[in-house]
Amino acid sequence: MKFDPNQLSALAAVLRLGSFEAAAQSLNVTPSAVSQRLKALEERVGTVLVKRAQPCTGTEAGLRLAKHAEDVSLLEGLVARELSLDMGAQQPPPHLRVAVNADSLATWFIAAMAETCDILFDLVIDDQDHSADWLRRGEVSAAVTAHDKPISGCNAHALGAIRYQASASPGFMRKWFPNGVSGTALSRAPCLTFNAKDALQRRWLDRHFGSDITPPAHFIPSTQGFADAATAGLGWGMNPVALIDPALCSGSLVPLLPDSALDVALCWQVSRVMAPALAPLTRAVLGSAKAHLIQPPC
Which of 10, 103, 114, 115 has CB atoms 3.0–4.6 Å from 284's, for a disulfide? Predict the structure, then answer.
C-alpha cells in the first residue's frame, strides 16, 4: 500500500503536538486541511488512527504509521546528504523518537544530542530496564537500555556503565542510622524511588542486606529532584555519581556504606533499517558515553 506523504505528515504532526490546530500551524496549512488529510488516511487504511481528545493520542495503528512517516523523513535526509542536496529550504528537520532513561538524560545523553545536527528529538523517558520495550513495539528508532542482547531487527552497541551511590544527607544518617547502617534500620528509614519501575534501591539492598527488607518510600520521578530530596534529608536513594559528585565532595551527601557503588551497564540499540540514517547520532552517543560512563578495563 502506498501512502500519501502529506497525509502521513498530518498524522505525525497531530500525534506529536497533540492537536489539529498545532499540527496545522507546524505544517503551514489550515486545521481543516489537517482534518481532511487525516480522514482520508483513516479511510484508506480502514481504521481509526487518532483518538480525538485533549490532547490527541494515537491508536496502535496510528502510532505505527506516524513512526513510519518519521522514519521516511530521516531516510530521505540521509539520501539528501549523500547526494549533497540542499533540502533545508524545502522542509523542516525530521523528528526522531528515542527512548532513554532519565539518569542518562541528566548526566551524558544531551551532550550526544548537541553534536547531532538536522534532527528534532522526541524523547521517551523510561527506566533502563524497560526502554527496550519501546523498540520491540516499533515505537522508537533507538534506545538507551540495560539490555545488551540485540533486540530483533536492531544493532546493539555497549556504552559502559552508569555508576550509582546509595547516598543520604549527614542529618538523615544521624537520625536513622545512629548505630550504623543495618537491615533493621533500613527497614524503617525512608528511601527514595523514581517510580514503580525503579529497582535500583531493591538491587542495592539485596546485594548488601538480603531480600527481606521493604523500606517505606517516597516516589520522586525526577533525577534532579531525587538528588535534591536526598540532600534535603527526605530519604536515601541510588543517585548517579556523575550528578552528585559535588555534593559528595562537599559532604552534603554521604554514602550509606563505603565501597558500595552499583554500576549499571548500558547499551545503545538502534533499528537496523534506520542505522545508516542515524550513524551520526550513534557516533555521538558512543563518544559521549566513552567520555562520561564507566568503561570496562582494556
Answer: 115
